[in-house]
From TrEMBL:
Pathway assigned in UniProt: Amino-acid biosynthesis; L-lysine biosynthesis via AAA pathway; L-alpha-aminoadipate from 2-oxoglutarate: step 1/5
Pfam families referenced in this protein's UniProt entry, alphabetically: HCS_D2, HMGL-like
Domain of life per record: Eukaryota
UniProt KW Transferase keyword: yes
Annotated catalysed reactions: acetyl-CoA + 2-oxoglutarate + H2O = (2R)-homocitrate + CoA + H(+)
PROSITE patterns for this protein: AIPM_HOMOCIT_SYNTH_1, AIPM_HOMOCIT_SYNTH_2, PYR_CT
Requisite cofactors: Mg(2+); Mn(2+)
Similarity comment: Belongs to the alpha-IPM synthase/homocitrate synthase family. Homocitrate synthase LYS20/LYS21 subfamily.
Name of the featured protein: homocitrate synthase
Domain Pyruvate carboxyltransferase: start-end pairs: 4-263
Length: 380
């Protein structure tokens, strides 16, 4: 799973998010931030989509970023001719192969799909740039049809073939089976694209890597059609838990939060509370039992180390689930001196008030300070 690469699609799939409208300046800001983070590829909206999309694609190609620039087109010569003129490093071609898309979208049969795929691929290759061929709605496509088309394009020579779970229906076992089968059929690299309608987008991406895929499509915060795709941050969380050294060596994880904030601001959303890594409580420990162990050794209750992302953990001590170890650490922070027995006593007072109403930090600090003052005056 470790040697994976990212195809970052905030500027393509992400533009299909309900709230997204990126003008040229915003696209450039996002592209630079993604490049700075270290993504391998940046995928852009088709230059055939609109005149401004074409101009923006050209502008981003001229930035001289380290990341390779791709654009995403329909499997059609009209689109391909425009794409190869933009200065991109590669083209991602997609065509629907499921019964649904063949009937209700483009209306073409598998022979026509194969013919146009060959034409488009040979044309793009003749311009000396990378080419990926992907089927849309792969998991609801006929397996024999799918393998035939992938075998055909692999023979002509493509850099990657792609599998797309366009409707988010796939589960990890189906992903494993399809990628494994495809791995035995083609010699090129395999890229995967997962929508998150049933909450499997990160798990499916991980499983695809286990089965032999090497490229994963992501977007910042997962933005995309409907509820989006595998999120960049979520995949980073999953992958750092699997191979920390590789992930740390490749991506500037300290920039994740700023990158997410940039995109969240541009599309006017908040970072979800339960977002991997950057959700506001992702490194907050609350129950007394957890706080005690975290203070002794953070790995007891943390699979991710917040400092890998330039973040810090937080021990939530102002609540009735707190314990005396958490309170003792607060006492230390306040620079006060209490024995363990006294800490236990003051913790009981805090918990008693916490049973009556929600507590804030000031409540706890006042109780501690009052208790401390009482102890000192008793001694005096
Ligand atoms: C879409 C297309 C796509 C393409 C994925 C790919 C999908 O329906 O908007 O090129 O691999 O989800 O099928 O995003
Ligand atoms: Cu998609």
């Amino acid at each position: 799973v470790s040697r994976f690469k990212l195809i970052e699609s905030t500027l393509r799939e992400g533009e299909q998010f309900a709230n997204a409208f990126f003008d040229t300046e915003k696209k450039i800001a996002i592209a630079k931030a993604l490049d700075d983070f270290g993504v391998d590829y940046i995928e852009l909206t088709s230059p055939a989509a609109s005149e401004q999309s074409r101009l923006d694609c050209e502008a981003i190609c001229k930035l001289g970023l380290k990341a390779k620039i791709l654009t995403h087109i329909r499997c059609h010569m009209d689109d391909a001719r425009i794409a190869v003129q933009t200065g991109v490093d590669g083209v991602d071609v997609v065509i629907g192969t499921s019964q649904f898309l063949r009937e209700y979208s483009h209306g073409k049969d598998m022979n026509y799909i194969a013919k146009s795929a060959i034409e488009v691929i040979e044309f793009v290759k003749s311009h000396g740039i990378e080419i990926r061929f992907s089927s849309e709605d792969s998991f609801r496509s006929d397996l024999v049809d799918l393998l035939n088309i992938y075998r055909t394009v692999d023979k002509i020579g493509v850099n990657r073939v792609g599998i797309a779970d366009t409707v988010g229906c796939a589960n990890p076992r189906q992903v494993y089976d399809l990628v494994r089968t495809l791995r035995s059929v083609v010699s090129c690299e395999i890229e995967c694209h997962f929508h998150n309608d049933t909450g499997c987008a990160i798990a499916n991406a991980y499983t695809a890597l286990e089965a032999g895929a090497t490229f994963i499509d992501v977007s910042v915060l997962g933005i995309g059609e409907r509820n989006g795709i595998t999120s960049l941050g979520g995949l980073m969380a999953r992958m750092i838990a699997a191979d920390r050294d590789y992930v740390l060596s490749k991506y500037k994880l300290h920039k994740l939060r700023d990158l997410e904030n940039l995109v969240a601001d541009l599309v006017e959303i908040n970072i979800p509370f339960n977002n991997p890594i950057t959700g506001f409580c992702a490194f907050t420990h609350k129950a007394g039992i957890h706080a005690k162990a975290i203070l002794a050794n953070p790995s007891t209750y943390e699979i991710l180390d917040p400092s890998d992302f330039g973040l810090t953990r937080y021990i939530h001590f102002a609540n009735r689930l707190t314990g005396w170890n958490a309170i003792k650490s607060r006492v230390d922070q306040l620079n006060l001196n209490l024995t363990d027995a006294q800490c236990k006593e003051v913790t009981a007072k805090i918990k008693a008030l916490g049973d009556i109403r929600p507590l804030n930090i000031d409540d706890v600090d006042s109780i501690i300070r009052q208790f401390h003052a009482d102890q000192s005056s008793e001694i005096a």
